[in-house]
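Margin note from the TA: students keep mixing up input and output lines. Inputs are the sequences; the output is the structure of the whole complex. Example:
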Amino acid sequence: MGRLTVTILLITIPLFSADVNIYERNCVKCHEKLPVSLDKFFFNYLLKYSSERQVKQALRKYLKHPKRKSSLATEEIILRYGLMPKSTLSDAELREAIEIYWEKYKVFGKIE
Amino acid sequence: MSVSNVTATSINRSERITLLRFIGLYSFLVLMILILGSTIYFKLQKDLMLQTKRLELEEYSKELIDGLKLLHIYFDRYRTYPRNSLYRSAIYDADHVQIFSTLKHPEGVKLDKVIYTTDGVIQYIHVLDSYYLGTKYTVVEIDDDGKWFQDTWRNILLYGGVLLFIFMAAGVVLMRLFLSPMREAIHLLDRFIKDTTHELNTPVSAILSNIEMIDPKSLDPKTAKKIRRIEIGARTISTIYQDLTYLVLDHQILSENRQIDLSSLLKERIEYFRILSESKKLTFETDIQPEVKLYIDQNKMARLIDNLLSNAIKYNRRGGTIYVTLRPGEMVVKDTGIGMDEKETKEVFERYKRFENGVGGFGIGLSIVAMIANEYNLDVEIRSKKGHGSEVFVRWGV
């Protein structure tokens, strides 16, 4: 029994570490603490910016220079949790994180 | 002789061509007007149909947007696209990328338009203010039953046909109305020419026959010279008379075709014209092979020869020469006169065409030559050089 537990742990540790990508580490980690989930923010971006190109462009701009005017969060959330801090990620990392975010919540191919 | 024969008042070929051109132009303009009218009518009918369908499609579009809104809000719970059996639809993002479609023809969607028909369907585009699921454009599509198309075409053909008939009838009436004074003028002129021609015959014949009866030896030289001038004048009038008779009357007289002795006829006509040529001090150089025969109406052949000789005299220089050659299958009349350039040579057979106003005549001579040549399949060729003279070849099959 003890040997089996060790084996499962050895198998799952690399898997978990692989799942924790740049998006998980830098976005999900903080947003988990907020009452509004990341998918709601995604649909807010879709509602305002429509296309993949424009959504990604708006996200990149906001994450680099978060401003109250360009934030899609509600007033209440901003008052309670404040604006998110400026991203410390490099441009390439930011693009990668946004790409993962888009792929996770995009509607293309999901409508039945 | 009857001079009131209406058929004689025939409109000549160039006038007929003018009339045909008028009819052609008129028909073209009428067709253009009808096509333009039909196009406008077709477009209006199509717009009317689309406006009617637009109300229906707007309702469907609203329904689709409501469904999209719900799907946007509850996308984490269900993902079924809002469908309706009454219409098909599609959604596109701001970059015109298709998000989802149930359209029959999704490839031909024109997102820059509002409503249009394509491949048997009507498509209506609506631009959203809030992009549910990223949708900026909704496309709603219904089948186009084509009834409006059939009705419109039936009306175009029916009313277009009636209008075409009315226009053409009006055209014929207008043409007759406008042509009426011209026809009357031609008719009057025709009658005048016929009457005058008829009346010319008797005095000209009287003058010529009386001159022939005078013995020149019995006259003193001065009077003989005057009589000779009178004879030249009378013969010129006689030639013109013959031409006019041919033009205005001869087509009513049946041709008496037979095998004629062309050599004798040519010699006879040269003798007739010799007296006229003397006034310009012209010399005849002839090379006429005897017994050359041709199957033709003698009077018509005489007209042809007379006109060639008459031109050779008229357009020759003073003291020049007229060369006349006759061989089986070919007759040549050459002068040493003013000649013509290439353009003039091409136009020479047109009626009333004259290139030298200083000489007499009506410009109908070569037109008569062409008419006779055409009737008997004679080939007429003119070689001319400005300042050097002209050479007329008349050829026929032997």
